[in-house]
UniProtKB/TrEMBL annotation:
One of its GO terms (molecular function) is ATP binding. It catalyses: ATP + protein L-histidine = ADP + protein N-phospho-L-histidine. It is found in: Cell membrane. The chain holds residues 191 to 417 of 417 of the full protein. Keywords: ATP-binding, Cell membrane, Kinase, Membrane, Nucleotide-binding, Phosphoprotein, Transferase, Transmembrane, Transmembrane helix, Two-component regulatory system. This is histidine kinase. Its main location: membrane. Its EC number is 2.7.13.3. The lineage of its organism: Bacteria, Bacillati, Bacillota, Bacilli, Bacillales.
Length: 227
């Protein structure tokens, strides 16, 4: 219980700090972006235009990171409603279609009908986006992902996301979900922290199995809603 309380303290501290930093950094960035757009004159030599474009892209990338930090700060839970988990999974897969295609990754979805759970659809999507994005990113040479939603017995709904990517060692798997743990050059290491937090807040359970060089499987189960 004591370690759980420390964990909650830690989350709160991170949340407060990220919120403050995000706001303070975002405003000047928007100003810089605006001026860069003004500088982007058609008469400029192509090389200079390219520098401006690159600067804008980098700013946008930084902004994405800030969005992830802000999402981290938002409290999970609250306004839950009846959502069909398979539909949400499909929606997220569609959302990431071009992100995956760009990396030669295809996402195959399978769904049972009527997998209703109680959840905040935005939070559930966020959770699934983070997991699916990692799955795509785990396959630098491309490959395929299987994303499935099925009934698990009478009382639970099971979502599985399987990739054929780089996989994780035992140690890496143990650290998965710790804030700021990332092996990526420009990763935030918050995606899994957020996803695990959301799953927990929805009464879900998550099991991750992984094998180095073979791939990773996320199995998330939620209580079925008795609608
Ligand atoms: P980020 O993606 O920003 O690095 P995450 O919290 O989403 O942060 O993930 C943390 C780390 O966990 C990743 O950097 C990666 O090393 C590892 N990881 C997560 N999902 C997978 C996966 N499907 N396959 C292999 N490694 C993964
Ligand atoms: Mg990630």
């Amino acid at each position: 219980l004591r370690s759980e309380m420390l964990e909650a303290e830690k989350f709160r501290a991170i949340r407060d700090l990220t919120g403050i930093f995000a706001h303070e950094i975002r405003n000047p960035m928007q100003v810089v972006r605006g001026f860069l757009q003004l500088l982007d004159d058609p008469a400029l030599p192509p090389r200079k235009k390219e520098f401006i474009q690159l600067s804008i892209e980098e700013l946008d990338r930084a902004n994405e990171t800030i969005n992830e930090l802000l999402d981290f700060g938002k409290p999970a839970g609250g306004d839950n409603e009846e959502v069909e988990a398979g539909f949400q999974l499909q929606r997220v897969a569609n959302l990431l279609h071009s992100y995956a295609e760009l990396r030669s990754v295809t996402i195959h979805t399978e769904r049972d009908a009527d997998c209703w759970i109680r959840a905040n659809p935005r939070k559930l999507s966020q959770c699934l986006v983070n997991i699916l994005k990692n799955a795509v990113e785990s396959m630098p040479e491309g490959g395929s992902i299987r994303a499935a939603c099925s009934a698990e017995g009478d009382s639970r709904v099971l979502l599985t996301i399987e990739d054929q990517g780089v996989g994780m060692t035992r140690e890496q798997l143990d650290r998965l979900g710790s804030p700021f743990y990332s092996l990526k050059e420009s990763g935030t290491g918050l995606g899994m922290t957020v996803s695990f937090q959301i799953i927990r807040s929805l009464g879900g359970k998550v099991r991750v199995t992984s094998e180095r060089g073979k791939g990773t499987r996320f199995a998330i189960s939620f209580p079925k809603s008795d609608r």
